[in-house]
Amino acid sequence: MRRALTLPLVATGAIATTLAVGAPAQAHGYVSGPPSRQALCAQGRVPDCGQIRYEPQSVEGPKGLRSCHAGISHFAVLDDDSRGWPATSVGSSVTFTWTNTARHATSNWEYFIGSTRVAVVNGGGQQPGATVSHTVNLSGWSGRQKVLAVWNIADTANAFYACVDLQIGGGGTPSPTPTPTPRPTTPAPTTPPPTTSPTPTPPASGGTWTAGRTYQVGDQVTYGGATYRCRQAHTALPGWEPPYVPALWTQV
User: Fold this and answer.
1) Percentage of the chain with pLDDT > 90?
2) Cβ 147 vs Cβ 163: under 8 Å
3) Number of neighbouring beta carbons within 10 Å of residue 187
4) 3-state SS string over 66-95?
5) What is the pTM of this model?
6) Pick from 24, 77, 173, 194: CA 20 to 30 A from residue 60's CA?
């Protein structure tokens, strides 16, 4: 039987803004990096996820559960291990980042692999920032692992859940091998065509930030008179305006 290891953990919190952010009643938080299963659905990297694609922050259920979907039937896809969830290649130390669309007072955050709690971070009953990061030592583990991240709220009986697929020690989901371009079978012309300088591709621009639009890394948008560049591919939701989610946007 595997022995439970006492693993060191460093917690850091980042407050993006002191302004209150308006959000839907069921908007709360989820692990955005490495991308959790609901984040992958929201980004469109895993198809046919159903409703979770539009509200990855809403996987809320009673404290003490050990499921990815918190017992919510229309989020059950999150516990379907046959979906081929991409695993992020990591080393022995992993930094998990929560994106919080409603900043609840926090009891603690917990991280599990199977039935083993590999890390816990005390929230002290305080309100966290718009993003919170925890660095967890997973040196006692290797290969493909599913980490269950739990955000336990201080003033309710509920918690938020997110499952993150990792390939510890590298070797995660490989990129597809490109098909080689066949060699031409006809001889080259005796007189080469005139060469032209390639036209440089301008930086991607998404115009004005718009909720419901899918953004890719490098896309630029304007919001409130400022320009922002996308840091993580995602589908924008109300409450995720660029100034309030530094995990997703950086000001240019």
Assistant:
1) 54
2) yes
3) 6
4) CCCCCCCHHHHHHHCHHHCCCCEEECCEEE
5) 0.60
6) 173
